[in-house]
């Protein structure tokens, strides 16, 4: 990856329930030069999700063809479903000087760091309280007990890797967390 | 990962059928200071495989506890089975000045590169002929048609990521390939 990237590549990871989506939304709003990379997935579209907004929803065969053509910067199979970060739009945006934010789990985050090295800034968003997060994840919403269990398990997996990130930011206050990310970007 | 590693961390990836195992075996034989990291897995032991030699075979609950304690440098779930690289023995060996060779797929290789940065040397071993490899993989041995299909698919996935590696080595001749790896190590 010896490309000439003028923009920042930001990897943001966080356990589910930490407020990552709000942080990204706010950053995009206050930074017209920042874009959010849209991943491809083979999982079915959920109610309210938008093609090209939340994900590019594609079938398994199309996904596999894209893997073989090297069209993903990184991809992973999770519970028999595929998720991948398209390479071309990402590199094009960075070449044009745009900042690109990637919303990835810790395993995907490390892959992107491996591919882009110093050109990728990895930020881990921490919940104000891990105990509180676990309490919320294990009681929240309409999900089945199994889904809650998986979400809790995933949150623990994510937290176990936080030390591998370039930066860790506590998301106690949305505005404050975004300011800290801006400071990081300004220093790069 | 700002640890004081005196040894080299070598990631070797290659499509199935490229002769990676022979290369590793030979390198270990000619380099008493080199060790091969043994992964953990939840998949069942196959005939002829040795606990602690081929893998550490552990159950799912034990694996998940290790994830949560941050005991893996990287891990992945593939077809509902877990594979992971234990962190502690790896770091200990590198601190002691040993060279450690990791035998990983491209996704795992990128994660380790992301975690260890310049301290990891990634090498992709190329088959002398991709066409010949595909022919062999699709006709080889006692496997079912489905297993052959998966192996072929994986080989294509691996090849698609070869450009992400620090070095690519053609494995036309075993001795020659090992010499090239030695040259790479000597230059680091």
Report on this model:
The structure is a homodimer of 188-residue chains. The longest helix of chain A has 16 residues, at 145-160. The first copy, chain A, has helices at residues 20-30, 60-68, 87-95, 106-116, 130-139, 145-160, 174-186, and strands spanning 9-13, 34-36, 40-41, 56-57, 72-78, 81-86, 99-103, 120-126, 167-170. Chain A is 42% helix and 22% strand. With 188 residues, chain A is α/β, with parallel strands linked by helices. The mean pLDDT of chain A is 91. The two termini of chain A are 18 Å apart. Chain A has a single domain, classed as Rossmann fold (3-Layer(aba) Sandwich). In chain A, the strands form 2 sheets. A 5-stranded parallel β-sheet of chain A has the order 2-7-1-8-9, sandwiched between helices. In chain A, strands 4-3-6-5 form a 4-stranded mixed β-sheet. Chain A binds chain B through residues 1, 64, 67-70, 74-80, 107, 109-115, 117, 122, 153, 156-157, 160-161, 163-164, and chain B through 1, 64, 67-70, 74-80, 107, 109-115, 117, 122, 153, 156-157, 159-161, 163-164.
Q: Tags for this entry?
A:
homodimer; alpha/beta; five-stranded parallel sheet; four-stranded mixed sheet; 7 helices
Give the secondary structure arrangement, pairings included.
The structure is a homodimer of 188-residue chains.
Chain A: E1 9-13, H1 20-30, E2 34-36, E3 40-41, E4 56-57, H2 60-68, E5 72-78, E6 81-86, H3 87-95, E7 99-103, H4 106-116, E8 120-126, H5 130-139, H6 145-160, E9 167-170, H7 174-186
Parallel strand pairs in A: 1-7, 1-8, 2-7, 3-4, 8-9
Antiparallel strand pairs in A: 3-6, 5-6
Helix pairs in contact in A: 1-7, 5-6
